From TrEMBL:
Keywords from the named record: Membrane, Transmembrane, Transmembrane helix
Protein name, as recorded: Cytochrome-c oxidase
Organism: Halobacillus litoralis
Transmembrane regions listed in the UniProt entry: 7-26, 38-57, 69-89, 101-125
Length: 133
């Protein structure tokens, strides 16, 4: 799997969703979804894009199990956090408030694990992270 391509493409989808939400909120005059909009843009667009650039700039081994875990926890964590946040705040289906809360918490926790894996990776593969050619 090309980690850079994957992250940049998924980030572009989140950027489109976030921009659409922002446009919709501005046009409608309501800011009820602003926290969700902000998280979609920050963790969905900016973080995933930054991770993609990280894998492009620094030559992290393609067979790294840590990098593979980072990619998938990032993907599922962003999805879980943003969709869970939307479910939690909008409650679109009556009677699912416990499910919505758990979805939100689990998504956020998976994303936290992804950021922890990223931090570990920057130290484990530190020899690849340098200004020297």
């Amino acid at each position: 799997m090309d980690r850079t391509r994957f992250f940049v493409r998924v980030a572009a989808i989140y950027a489109l969703i976030g921009a659409f939400m922002g446009s919709h909120m501005a046009g409608g005059g309501g800011l009820q979804l602003s926290a969700i909009h902000a998280h979609i843009l920050v963790v969905g667009w900016l973080s995933l894009f930054a991770f993609g650039i990280y894998y492009k700039v620094f030559k992290i081994p393609k067979d790294s199990k840590l990098a593979k875990a980072h990619v998938w926890t990032s993907f599922f964590g962003v999805f879980g956090l943003t969709v869970g946040m939307w479910l939690y705040y909008t409650q679109p289906i009556d009677g699912l408030s416990a499910f919505n809360t758990v979805f939100f918490i689990v998504g956020g926790t998976i994303l936290l694990v992804a950021f922890a894996l990223f931090a570990i990776m920057t130290f484990l593969y530190g020899k690849f992270i340098s200004e020297d050619a």
